[in-house]
Amino acid sequence: MRGLACAAALAVGTTALAHSGVDDPVVMKRMVGMTDIAAHTKLLGRMAKGQDPFDAAAANTALDGIATEAARIPAQFGDRVLHPRSEALPVIWERFETFTARAEDLRDVATNAQGTVTEAPDLDGVMRRIGKSCSACHEAFRK
To answer: For the chain, how far is it from start to end, CA to CA, in angstroms?
Structure first.
């Protein structure tokens, strides 16, 4: 759990720095959510690589965090609001159904993995599926 607390503290500090100058609350909420997903994913990645000690509870908490944030994505992008500091592309709203499906896929990947991670090797397949899901969305909808 200590690793999760450190990751959360790092994410808060990184969020403040990376999102400075964003004054739109809609865009900021999206950016914070995406940063949270990244922090959870990085924690899982560090455990998978042996850089952090494996902690099944922390891994499953991170998966829950990814699923929770991914579930919020469609509603957070319901309004077409852009900001120069955001990496979101306008094509999100042109292909909103596909965008939403990609967010739902990430949610499903993380949800289905919860409870299945009981030892470090379990993270390998989970990380591949999460990476594939994130990449599919980022390639089409992010700068």
So the answer is: 33
